[in-house]
Amino acid sequence: MSRGTLTGAQARRVHRLYESGAAARDLAARFHVSEMTVSRIVRGLSWSSETGGRDVSRTTLTRAGRAAYIQGRADQGCGSAAQIARELGVSRQAVCEFMRRHGLSLTAAAAAVV
Fold first, then answer.
1. Does 52 fall in a domain?
2. How many CB atoms are closer than 10 A to CB 53?
C-alpha cells in the first residue's frame, strides 16, 4: 500500500481527532499514513510546528490516575485487562505490565466482587 504525505492541516486534524478519541489505526487508514506517523504526531514528535508539540497520547495519563482507574475497574468486577486497555486506548500488554509493576491484580478484586 502506498503511503501519502500529510499536509499541515491534515496533521492538525489527526492530532485533534486522536485527542477526541479516534484510534491511531483508524486515523492511519483514513489519512493513508503509517500508525507510527500518527503516533509521532500525537506525541508531539512530528509536525510540532502545526500541532503545538503537545503530547496528547493516551499513555501520558499520570501513574496515580492510571493506577486508580485500573484498580477502580477491577473493584467494579472487570476481570479483563483487554477491556481496560480498550478503555484507556493502550495495549493489553501495557495494562498487564503496569499492573505487575504496581502490584495490582484484576483477579483478586474480581473474585472479591463475586
1. yes
2. 12
Joined together, the cell numbers standing for residue 45 give: 514528535
Render pLDDT for 56-93 as a digit per residue (tens, 0 to 9): 776 655 566 777 888 888 888 888 889 988 888 778 88
User: What is the domain extent for residue 95?
Assistant: 61-113
Asked if 42 contacts 24 with a C-beta cutoff of 8 angstroms, the reply is: yes
* First-residue to last-residue Cα distance in the chain: 49
- Distance in angstroms (rounded) separating the CA atoms of residues 35 and 33: 7
Its pTM stands at 0.53
The residue among 39, 58, 77 that closes a domain is 58
Q: For residues 80 and 70, what is the distance between their CA atoms, to the nearest angstrom? A: 10
* Domain tally, the chain: 2
For 31, the grid coordinates are 489519512
- The larger pLDDT score, comparing residue 7 to residue 19, is at 7
